[in-house]
C-alpha cells in the first residue's frame, strides 16, 4: 500500500517555468547514467542556472508561496494529490511548474509502509539532491526519517526513474548545496532557514543510483 505525503517547494502555479532541464522521454529501462538523465531523472544542474531566473520566479509568486498562510492551504489541499496527479499524467502535470519536481518513494521508518512524496530537486554531479525543508516548520519531514532508516528508495517522474540510495550531506558540502538551492531554485528556502534558525538545521540528502553504489569499490583499512 502506498501513502502520500508532500514536501515540495510551494511556488504558485503561475510561476515561470524556465528551469533548464533536458527534454524528457517516455518509457522505462533507461540507462543508469546518460548525458541528460540520472537513472531516468532529468538533470537539473544549478551551475548552469542564472540567479536572475530564481529572482524572477520569486517576484512572480514565490514570496506568496513561502508565506505561512499559503503553505497551510497548499499542504492541506494541493500537496496530498500532487503525487497521484503526476503519476496519472506520466509526469506531465504538476502544481509547482517553477522548479523541477520528482516523486520520492520511501519506506516508513516505523510502519514499513511505502510512501510517495513530491519534492523539488536539483542535481549535483551524478546525484540527485533533496532538501528536507518541510516548509520551514520546526520538525524534519517524515520522508527524511524514512531515508535515514531505509536508505534504499526510488525516484520517478511519471514512468521515468528507478532505484536510488540516500545519504545525508553534512558540513561544508551541505552549506554549499543549500546556498546554491536557495539562490537558484527556490528563494523560499532562505526564508525557511531563517524560521528554523536555532531550532533545527534543515537536512540535505544526496541520492545516488543504486547500481552506481553497488559498483563502488568497498572501503578497506
Features:
eight-stranded mixed β-sheet; Pnp Oxidase, Chain A; two-stranded antiparallel sheet; alpha+beta
Low-confidence stretches: 1-6, 9-33
User: What percent of the residues sit in helical stretches (DSSP H or I)?
Assistant: 25-40%
Question: What is the count of helical runs?
Answer: 6
Instruction: Label the structural class.
Output: alpha+beta
Question: How would you describe the shape?
Answer: globular
Overall radius of gyration: 16 Å
Tell me the β content: 15-25%
Quick one: CATH superfamily?
Answer: Electron Transport, Fmn-binding Protein, Chain A
Q: What is the distance, rounded to the nearest whole angstrom, between the alpha carbons of the first and last residues?
A: 42 Å
Q: Strand order, biggest sheet?
A: 1-5-4-8-9-10-7-6
CATH fold field value: Pnp Oxidase, Chain A
Question: Kindly state the mean pLDDT as a whole number?
Answer: 77
Reading the helices and strands in chain order gives: EEEHHEEEEHEEHHEH
Profile the largest sheet.
8 strands, mixed
CATH architecture: Roll
Question: What is the CATH class?
Answer: Mainly Beta
Number of domains: 1
Oligomer type: single chain
The overall strand count is 10
Could you please describe the fold and organization of this structure?
The chain has 221 residues and is of the alpha+beta class. The chain has one domain: Pnp Oxidase, Chain A. Helix content is 33%, strand content 23%. The chain contains six helices and ten strands; from the N terminus they run E-E-E-H-H-E-E-E-E-H-E-E-H-H-E-H. The chain has helices at residues 51-65, 68-88, 142-149, 171-184, 188-195, 210-215; strands at residues 2-4, 37-38, 41-42, 101-107, 114-120, 122-124, 127-131, 152-157, 160-169, 204-209. The strands form two sheets. Strands 1-5-4-8-9-10-7-6 form an eight-stranded mixed β-sheet. A hairpin with a 2-residue loop joins strand 6 (122-124) and strand 7 (127-131). The relative contact order is 0.21. Residues 1-6 and 9-33 have low confidence and may be disordered.
Amino acid at each position: 500500500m502506498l501513502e502520500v505525503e508532500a514536501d515540495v517547494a510551494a511556488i504558485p502555479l503561475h510561476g515561470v517555468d524556465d528551469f533548464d532541464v533536458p527534454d524528457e522521454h517516455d518509457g522505462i529501462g533507461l540507462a543508469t547514467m546518460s548525458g541528460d538523465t540520472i537513472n531516468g531523472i532529468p538533470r537539473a544542474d544549478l551551475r548552469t542556472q542564472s540567479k536572475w531566473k530564481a529572482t524572477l520566479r520569486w517576484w512572480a509568486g514565490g514570496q506568496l508561496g513561502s508565506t505561512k498562510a499559503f503553505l497551510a492551504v497548499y499542504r492541506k489541499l494541493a500537496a496530498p494529490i500532487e503525487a497521484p496527479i503526476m503519476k496519472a499524467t506520466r509526469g506531465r502535470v504538476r502544481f509547482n511548474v517553477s522548479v523541477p519536481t520528482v516523486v520520492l518513494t520511501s519506506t516508513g521508518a516505523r510502519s514499513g509502509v511505502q510512501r510517495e512524496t513530491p519534492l523539488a530537486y536539483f542535481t549535483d554531479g551524478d546525484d540527485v539532491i533533496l532538501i528536507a525543508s518541510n516548509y520551514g516548520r520546526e520538525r524534519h519531514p517524515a520522508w527524511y526519517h524514512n531515508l535515514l532508516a531505509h536508505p534504499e528508495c526510488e525516484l520517478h517522474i511519471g514512468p521515468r526513474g528507478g532505484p536510488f540510495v540516500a545519504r545525508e550531506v553534512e558540513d561544508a558540502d551541505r552549506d554549499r548545496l543549500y546556498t546554491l538551492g536557495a539562490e537558484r531554485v527556490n528563494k523560499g528556502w532562505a526564508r525557511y532557514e531563517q524560521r528554523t534558525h536555532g531550532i533545527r538545521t534543515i537536512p540535505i540528502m544526496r541520492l545516488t543510483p543504486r547500481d552506481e553504489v553497488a559498483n563502488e569499490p568497498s572501503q578497506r583499512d
